[in-house]
Design brief:
- There is one protein chain.
- The chain is an all-alpha fold.
- The protein has one domain.
- The protein is about 40% helix and about 0% strand.
- It has five helices and no strands.
- The chain is globular.
- It binds iron/sulfur cluster.
């Protein structure tokens, strides 16, 4: 059952976000852009410092930095302050190729851990 659920999640997220199945989903941190597929450095706390005039340093004048794209997306809704609000930990590779949805509900991924910490401090 878990395998089927994981397959369903993965197919959906590949189609929508070019998901790489990291299992520790950071879509919510980067305006629903996948840092594992859209950033060649897999940066979860960008921009990395190498971007120039909005371009990714790995693909200058070909690809915009994922954080420029995220900022543009959020700015449209007046939510640009969300970017960089939380320090995002490195991807937890123990969760690689497991269901990030299940990991969230089991409290294993960084988003559920952050939520639990916030709830404790309220
Ligand atoms: S951050 Fe991980 S789980 Fe989320 S879409 Fe990207 S590869 Fe998939």
């Amino acid at each position: 059952m878990e395998d089927l659920f994981h397959k369903l999640e993965h197919l959906t997220k590949v189609a929508l976000f070019d998901c790489r199945d990291c299992g520790d989903c950071a879509l919510i941190d980067v305006a629903y852009l996948c840092p594992m597929s859209q950033c060649p450095k897999n940066q979860r706390n960008g921009a990395c410092g190498g971007s120039f005039q909005g371009w990714c340093e790995v693909y200058p004048e070909k690809r915009l930095c994922i954080y420029v794209r995220a900022y543009t997306r959020l700015k449209k809704h007046g939510e640009e302050e969300q970017l960089g609000k939380d320090i995002v930990p490195p991807c937890n590779w123990d969760l690689y190729q497991t269901s990030s949805w299940i990991n969230y509900y089991l409290g294993k991924d960084h988003v559920s851990k952050r939520r639990n910490q916030q709830d404790t401090h309220e």
